[in-house]
Amino acid sequence: MNIILIGDSGHARVIADNVTSNGDSVVARLDDKYAELFKEDNCWLGPVSEIHGLIEKENAKVVIAIGSNAIRKKIVDRLSLNSDQYATIIHKESIVSPSAKIGHGTVVMPGVIVNAAATIGNHAILNTRLVIEHDCVVGDYAHVSPGAMITGGVKIGDGVHIGAGATVIPTKVIGQWSVIGAGSVVIDDVEEHSTAVGVPARTIKTEQNTANTVNR
């Protein structure tokens, strides 16, 4: 499979490693830091506006290789591609249950475990060596950071960022576009557009303006 990455930074390099680990090829890295399209080491580099021509030219699928949840959503909205034009990248060293569902454009990093009947949305990031336990739901554009432990039946809303090494106990709900601090232990539901930190996690901020939250 040929892959076009939108974004050309550190996160994109990690995703490129995931792609090549599976024997697939990164044929383009598009980022608006480039003024025009050119080729380097057999890979196209250029602005995001070149995407539609390259998809056809290279018979490729797309991954939004940007860490910010809000920016990933903006780019998906801007490109207006069909869902099947996005690739799902699952590293060969991850473990995904046959009964789990992984959405379009989502990236599953090395060492990740996704257990039975979990559902992962579109354009999410499951980062290195985390665990998503049985019957969890992770929304679109969410990012679960390295080493996090999401126990059974947890529901994580769209755009949520779970920090590195955080734990969420069973059946808790993390509202959309919330942030859970690194190393936190979530023992209660977290309202949408909130930031919660600590052991146990406590809400320290709730964003009332949805537009500001999504654009952060």
Automatic annotation (TrEMBL):
SUPFAM superfamilies: Trimeric LpxA-like enzymes. Residues 2-79 form the PglD N-terminal domain. Signal peptide: none annotated. Pfam families: Hexapep, PglD_N. InterPro entries: AcTrfase_PglD-like, Hexapep, PglD_N, Trans_hexapeptide_repeat, Trimer_LpxA-like_sf. This is Acetyltransferase. It comes from Planococcus shenhongbingii.
